[in-house]
Amino acid sequence: MPPTPLLIVTGPPASGKTALARRLAADLQLPPISRDAFKEKLFDTLGWGDRERSKELGAASYEILWLALENNLAANVDTFVESNFRGDLPAERYYSERLSAGVGRRMDPPDYAGDKPALGDLRPRSPLRWTRTHRIGLLLSMRRRKAMMRYKAVVFDLLSGLLDSWTLWNTVAGSAEVGMRWRQAYLRHTYATHSYRPYETLVAEAATQANLPVSLAADLIARWDELMPWPETAKVLGTLAGQVPLAAVTNCSEALGARAIARVGVPFSVVVTAERAGFYKPDPRPYRLALQELGIAPEDALFVAGSPFDVPGATGVGLPTVWHNRLGLALPPTSPQPLATYDTLRPLVSDVLGDKT
Description:
Blueprint: E1 6-9, H1 17-28, E2 33-34, H2 35-46, H3 51-74, E3 79-82, H4 91-98, H5 146-149, E4 153-157, H6 165-173, H7 176-191, H8 199-209, H9 215-222, H10 233-241, E5 246-250, H11 254-264, E6 270-273, H12 274-277, H13 284-294, E7 301-305, H14 310-316, E8 321-324, E9 340-342, H15 348-353
Parallel strand pairs: 1-3, 2-3, 4-5, 4-7, 5-6, 7-8, 8-9
Helix pairs in contact: 2-3, 6-7, 7-8, 8-9
């Protein structure tokens, strides 16, 4: 019996794997098994939490992925899986132990531009050699398209994309659990507000919505200068700053925006606050003001979201968007998918500069 075809779409962030997976799924009429979809459903069912909770649900989503693959292959069902894979997760163990014989062949996105392939065309030509570069024994290898890697500017969310504001909120609240509840209330409240109202007022109202003392808002503002950048922020931005303009769009006041930018420690060409734009994200006007001041079209800038609500906001104005999802949060139910999801800023350098790095 010939081996059951197993088609895997994987690759580094912003490599085009999601776009390729959607095209293949439509042409082959074979729905992909997606680890991200499993994780989002776990979040919806079991609820959000802190970073440790996100890691637990992330690990659980991989186990569900392995189970689905095992069941399909055991039943000789043609299978299509799309996911990122990391060496510190069970992916290498699974593929090396159970599927190392190889059941796929390599195909680059530029080669998939004409006729629709037949699933039989994807049967094995030869086993793929296990290497650290490939990380999995079964790989649909993809070459990054230069058009997806090069941008004329990079626009960041400030308070989650570049700064670890979550730790400060948790510290002021007294625990990670209470801080998460307060911050989530703030995000829902702010992203439903649209027209600018004082940031401090929204933070206090969110505390009330989370059944917390209103005085926490004043405590947070008083400790604003304790905001810390993510560990790799300075190095990544320092590399990018010499090549492309950097901008930030942030949901806070002018005064707090200036204090937060100072904590990043890297100069920005443009900084747009909700106060200056007159509206809170995800209203399109803050994003458009940044693009106007940069003097570039939306498609020429890469937006790095920090909050899940930034993803639909930025994509809605035509900005190619990646999500720096440090805490493993879930997107709003109706949100479009970002080009890529990172748990670190490091991939930005190669994704933006391409062959320049």
